[in-house]
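Hello, quick one for you while I still have it in my head. I'm working through a protein record and want to make sense of it properly. Would you mind checking whether the tokens look sensible for this chain? I owe you a coffee for this, so here goes:
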Amino acid sequence: MGTKALAIPRTKPGQPIEPFQHPAPKLTMAPPDMQPWKMSPPSMSPLHMTPPNMLLPNFSPIQDHMPLPTLSASKFCPPQSFLMHKMDQPPSVVKFSRYDPTVMVVGTSPDDPDEPRAIEQPSSIVVFKVEDVEREVRGDREMIARDVYEVRVKVRPRLTQMTVIPTPAAILDLKFSPHDPSLLVATLATGTLLFYRMIWGKYTAEPLSTHTIARGMTINSFAFSPTKRNLAAAALSNGTCLLLTLPSSLTENDSLETSFTLQVSQASVMRCDFSVDGKRLYTAAEDGTIISWATNKLPKIKERWRDSSVHKKGLTELIVWPAVGNPDIGKKRRALLTGSYDHKFRVLDMSLGNRPPLCVQDMDLEGIVWRLAPLPPLPKSEEVKSLKAGVFTPEQHPDVELDAEQVGLMAASASGGGRVLIYKQKFEEIFLPRRDGSDIVNWTTSDGVLMDHEGREKKYYWYDLADIEEHGDAHVYACDAQAIIDYDPLFKDAGEQRKRRGWRLVSMDRDGVMHFWQVYVE
């Protein structure tokens, strides 16, 4: 069950956050007649999952009492968080910097993010330092009984709160620019955008400018164009989405220009996102309306299609897939991923030519699907041995080949908690070799669909890999992830500890509690 917030100590800025020791978890298995995979089509068998750590000999830390994460995770054995922290204000959004992965930025909001009030309420942006530290671990009694006395190592984060930046109103969204990794924008519940310049190495942000673009309205989300440095979009609570022209220098207040005002709906516009090529802008409204806008021939803006039948209730989230920076761009079908107040995560296929697109899969996440954060790219398994343990970023390893088959999402689903969703080829699909015994030749269609030599499509589906249950009844509204290379505490190659790849994840609830946890792909 969830951990009570009052049991977690608070820390002062600059003071490392001490780990919290969990009680030993109890392992419970689902009855045979129970379907733990609540999705359509039927998901993969648990036989394809790596056994969780609690079924293997345990390793205990020597240097401190930091709990170790499970070796892997599944719906049967949820991962156990190994680091927690209690914030002074309820968080609303969290982002890791892709340029400097030791930087984690958290926005706070006194109101629930799905019910913000357009009034001034003191809030803040909090900058954390997340360091990788190698810690020694040793085998427990079961290992010693097998004559295993070796000391091994594992990588753990050390969390330090560095800077608290006061803001005049609630923070509803945070975005780093894809063109300038030091540029950070925060959207406020009072219709204001705040631009900051991250100061690398000092874990603080310098204010650049303030822009009031919709006084008395909430700015629910913000999106940078991935192809045009001076183009951005903002989703507003008055039913409109603004296309903004960014100046070359963002040091002057109110220097943004509103190029276009798109009338989306009579209800609040919750999310906006550009396609990977920047030619489309997608908007999602609280009345369930999705609209595709053509933005490739500015100043002409054209509505390509709209649909209000995807969800039974209002939309809360929308992102394009594959996401910008994903290694599977051009290798799989393009899609729109949506979330709603109806607790559903849905997949709209953008490659079939249907307008509006068809819903090809849905999944019940048991809570409002508030945030969908793409999991960062992982290196291919053969590259792992040559990499150092710790957080992995493609920007720091441009020569490392990325794995297009290991992709997914981190989901914040309010009462449904934190989730890991992975996008994998359907496990029931079997592709036979040629009858003459020659090699299989895979090829890709013009719309990015992977085919085999006989023209059969290699289908992919979303799977609910793992849930975190330690938030209890608190609603999870913020999440993000990092790619991680860690030591395997059990197995060795040529006398050295084997390394594993996976994701370090953070989920944050409205009680102000953040949990760090970890899953591995192999």
Remarks:
- The CA atoms of residues 199 and 324 lie 24 Å apart.
- The radius of gyration is 23 Å.
- Residues 5-20+55-425+462-520 form a domain with the Methylamine Dehydrogenase; Chain H fold (CATH 2.130.10.10).
- The longest strand covers residues 476-493.
